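Tutorial sheet, problem 5. The two components below are modelled jointly, 548 residues in total.
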Amino acid sequence: MKTRVVMVSGPAGSGKTSLVKAISGMLGRFAFMAADEKSERALSGLCEATDHFPMRTPCARPRQFSIRLERLLDSHDVPLVVSEPPGLQGETCAPILNPLFVFEKEKYNLGRLILTLTPEDVGDLRKNDVASQKNRLLIDEADVLVVTNSDAVEDERRPGIEKAVRSFNDACEIIFFSAADGEGAEDVARAVLEGGYSRPLVN
Amino acid sequence: MTGKEAFLSRLRMGGSDGTPVFLRELTLAMDVRGVPTPDVYGPPYNAKLSAACALEFHRMMGHDALTGNMHSYSLHAFGGITKYPEKGTPYLSSPPFADPSLMDGRDPSEIVDQTLEGMSESSGIVAGKLPGVAMVMNVGGPVNTAGNLRGVEAFLMDTMSEPGIARDMVRFGTDVMKEIVSFMGNDVYDTVFLAAASDNPDMLGPEGFLEYSIQSVKEITAFCKDMGLPVVFHPHGNFSADERVPLLYESVSTGIAGFQFGEGNDPATINAELSGKCSVMGGVDSFTTLLLGPDERIRRDVWKFLDVLEGDGHVATCSCSLNRGLPLGNVKAMVDAVRAWGGGE
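Model answer (structure tokens):
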């Protein structure tokens, strides 16, 4: 049976690890691949196995992802791997997932590419700085956008956030999520467990 | 005008009849013949098989500039462990100077080993068979080399906690680069290409990029110029955001002849800022457009880049090197799209 692999991307501090931690009880048996040791520790004891990526040169990220994934699954027979991307946490993820999709589709069932951004990240999308340029690229490739820290976003601000996202991706599912009050947690868990990687394949 | 003449003219910011295409076929050409990676890399490195792969790849693609050998950074010369997957790309699984004290007593000239000799021989064979094609020497950039020697994560930690070690690694790496250029020489090669994914302001920060990359690129560029070899610099990272544009100027100030931008940059900004200052290279994403296809998407994306970039000084490339597994038909579709742009064919 194929292992389901779900990537949760997003800039540093956007809430990737907190998101996975918050929904860990809804995912059944799974393993977590973290961007670094600190994130790995955060999921320790909440899932069946954890590992993290040492920093490598950007060109090596796709190969590194494939090798670490295989190593993890060699020692742990889990049906689901939730993974942060290797690298700088601002780089796009399609270059990592596409080789898996093309060369290892018999082994892996790629789930939707989930992106986390804070409301502030979305508010800055039109800026021409490094972070905003990268966030635009991350939105463009995402199947699901999770707006984190939603407890700090009043209802009247939400349509504006959705509109800003839609200028760069008119197809992704948008979920408002709060680790503090649990808003959106079930929707995020469903996004992890259902649906397939698609946006970069048709974009 | 031959492909070589067109490529070199564009490197001098001149024009040519059509857009020259440079494919950095580091390991992909082995797929044309389906040879296992260890058959080329050995040891010993099989120069004749490497050249045969490069030549057959060129027959298929018809590109204007190439590296002419199945590439290895050859850093196993200093220890560590390099792995050669049967059908994959060689990689360092254990860096030679993970323990920095291991650098003591090692000499950069040790890089000239049988692998480098084999790569040089392979390029010589290819150049002899393809006199109308430009030969490009692929050399790891300063931080790329230092990071591979030390391990990227350890190197980045060094820049913060032990900058002396980081500087020593870059010094050693720069001397390694010079040894490679000296050995490979200017008889066969027309250009030096600094493959510099880790010379990356996203990783190093702008200050680190200036300190560790730019100073060394300046040194290596002057060294190559003395040998009559123009240099193309290919750092990764963002150079098109407002706060990063000054790093483009710093890159040009090193004396480079060409700048190839990587993924995630805005080509219009890069072109506007570098136009008239150096040759600009770049193009479709290797891991999305080129990997996935189909031909129509490749053509659409190639033309989008050419619409922005084509003109004196532009050389068409994809975003990064070409390695095993990339569908050969998609690369051919990219070359065909360049040739067909503007009604050329």
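Marking note: The longest strand of chain A covers residues 3-9. Full credit if you identified this.
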